[in-house]
Amino acid sequence: MQEIIQIAASFIGSLGFAALYNLHGKKLWIAGVGGMICWGSYLGFLNLIQNGFITNLLATVVATAYAEVMARVQKTPVTVYLISAIIPMVPGGTLYYTMNYAIAKEWDLFYRYGQKTLMIAAAMAGGIMIASSLFQMYSQIRVYYKKRKSCQKT
């Protein structure tokens, strides 16, 4: 039951964030679904893999793939859907505690939370790079074979 509440909250959070980008109608709902898919995949991977870095990486790959596909279908920039989709995974809490412990000069806790924050951010950046690169490669291969096929007909 807790997972369902988290997924619903991620939908609402992503929906609200997409509204900041002035998305309306169908595109707004698609962006909300992106956040829901991202957080749902994060929870699913977390149950399968007990490694935070890999879990964040894979969930971000899923979110980026969703954003890339929806951007093509809706003829909208990828970043609109991508940022809305990954917003539930942003390590806001750990970043807050990192800064809080730095101000309090509790360096051991600062180091621990800072390391976790950087790990999540690096996993998210890596996931975006992997999925975007794979999608770009797929698109280029598809164009290549279309050109090759049309050249063979003539």
TrEMBL record:
The chain crosses the membrane at residues 6-23, 28-46, 52-71, 78-98, 118-138. One of its GO terms (biological process) is succinate transport. It comes from the Bacteria. It is a multi-pass membrane protein. Its main location: membrane. It holds the Pfam family ThrE_2. Keywords: Cell inner membrane, Cell membrane, Membrane, Transmembrane, Transmembrane helix. Residues 6-133 form the Threonine/Serine exporter ThrE domain. GO terms for cellular component: plasma membrane. It is found in: Cell membrane. Belongs to the ThrE exporter (TC 2.A.79) family. This is Threonine/serine exporter family protein. It comes from Candidatus Anaerostipes excrementavium.
